């Protein structure tokens, strides 16, 4: 049985390696104006992020080479939440960075149907404008979920409904736009903001999803749009996510090779067959509509299943509460078998990974458990490529079994090494060859790409990371499979957590010290690297000079200031509506 399993695994690794060779050769392309004309919406769901994280993400989107007039930043603040170590809530940080004013008493709120355990309705404010930085500008729309009136006194996180609900805000909006259905109050406010920014909702073809702590490469949007435009059958694609804080601690160091290997071996292999099984929410682009106008991402079938609110079983909670990105990928594979999900290695981003073991445990508990349950769902998808035993479904089944037996496999391997070195157990040549193939192909993957620095990261992964990823994390995850909280990575604090609200069910029960330490280390890292300093030069971002920013008094004045974005480039309808729809002022309805 051991030999059969090892031969199977070694064969699969070799096939994955061969498939990944497609992406070895660098692709230096020259892009024309035709390649960057498609309007793109960059969606960023936020929760408890602080000033530094948000500034880093916004600046990276602004500095991309994709034409400013063809991209719009769409940020969704998931509730009035203040992160640990922060003196302002996430919506207030966004207002400070982008330059709009928040007035809780004057700003209108707009109702929409949401997903949630306690509430199925929610209210949100809408702000929009243009952020100016030198000769570059960035159109933005900000949705602040503020909750029902009663939540102000009964909830520590008013308006919070989860990341999936934030995704459904934009998916539901485009569903009703493209099917010609009646818009909700929130949809109408978003529509007015789009018109005010001189954007046509039905012309936006691509939706790029990134996380609020992700820094995207300057060419990332261009690479992704090119991959979409040249292959109309591509439904969605992802790029390579790299570790931004590689040397922060031993915990971050063991993750560097893991991230690289998961993209250049596993995702590259799956992309060769058009069946990437997990499109990460931190760096993925989706096709909103097909060339013939058919809704794809916001299609009825996908939206109906993804917006389920009757999630009761352990299996469903792991799918929808912890693994929403994987579940969305599964639904795309299920309902669009004639389209492909692929991987573009040229497009890159950097993310901050957990730097303490406690935070890593919390993150991987969610990832591992949601992966196991999602693989069960993938086995029910009968439209993946291949026939019988030579198909992606078999690969998924092998991955599922391998994940389940990882702890036992590692213990067996350690016991085998003990017998070899201390009991003089003879080892067959075949066994050595099989283990050599399994480990060797992972090394060749980065050597062929001339990434010699990964020899060091591979050594750290092999010596320190294997017991963590193969034994400790899986055992901890399986033992806590009924834990559906987001743990330490979602800790909150400040006024949002310390108000006089009634007791509520919180997701974060761990102590706050590690989270504060993470934020402090992050800020120190930003200060140490000049290329990541946030707006500290003479031409720094100033909310008072943000160009065009909502209905705020500051924004109206800024449009008249020197260096601001000239609103005369808009048509007369835009100038007349001004920024009133941005804040949802009652005057916009008169």
Describe what this molecule looks like in 3D.
The chain has 590 residues and is α/β, with parallel strands linked by helices. The protein has helices spanning 2-20, 51-62, 90-98, 151-154, 163-178, 185-196, 220-230, 250-272, 300-306, 314-322, 324-335, 357-378, 392-404, 406-422, 429-447, 454-479, 494-498, 513-528, 553-558, 572-577, 580-583; strands at residues 40-46, 71-77, 110-113, 121-133, 136-145, 206-210, 214-216, 234-243, 283-287, 340-351, 386-387, 390-391, 548-549. Strand 4 (121-133) and strand 5 (136-145) form a beta hairpin. The radius of gyration is 24 Å and the shape is globular. It starts with a helix and ends in a 7-residue tail after the last helix.
Highlighted features:
single chain; 590 residues; 11-stranded mixed sheet; two-stranded antiparallel ribbon
Kindly summarize this structure in a few lines:
The protein has 590 residues and is α/β, with parallel strands linked by helices. The protein has helices at 2-20, 51-62, 90-98, 151-154, 163-178, 185-196, 220-230, 250-272, 300-306, 314-322, 324-335, 357-378, 392-404, 406-422, 429-447, 454-479, 494-498, 513-528, 553-558, 572-577, 580-583, and strands spanning 40-46, 71-77, 110-113, 121-133, 136-145, 206-210, 214-216, 234-243, 283-287, 340-351, 386-387, 390-391, 548-549. A hairpin with a 2-residue loop joins strand 4 and strand 5.
Give the SSE layout:
Elements: H1 2-20, E1 40-46, H2 51-62, E2 71-77, H3 90-98, E3 110-113, E4 121-133, E5 136-145, H4 151-154, H5 163-178, H6 185-196, E6 206-210, E7 214-216, H7 220-230, E8 234-243, H8 250-272, E9 283-287, H9 300-306, H10 314-322, H11 324-335, E10 340-351, H12 357-378, E11 386-387, E12 390-391, H13 392-404, H14 406-422, H15 429-447, H16 454-479, H17 494-498, H18 513-528, E13 548-549, H19 553-558, H20 572-577, H21 580-583
Parallel strand pairs: 1-2, 1-6, 2-5, 8-10
Antiparallel strand pairs: 3-4, 4-5, 4-13, 6-9, 7-10, 8-9, 11-12
Helix pairs in contact: 1-8, 1-15, 8-16, 9-11, 10-12, 11-12, 12-13, 12-16, 14-16
